[in-house]
Amino acid sequence: MRRINIHEAKTHLSRLVEEAAKGRPFIIAKAGKPMVQVVPLESASGERRKQFIGCMKGEFVAPSLEEFNEMDAEIARLFNDGPIFPDEA
Question: Domain 2-40+56-82: which topology?
Answer without folding.
Answer: YefM-like fold (3.40.1620)
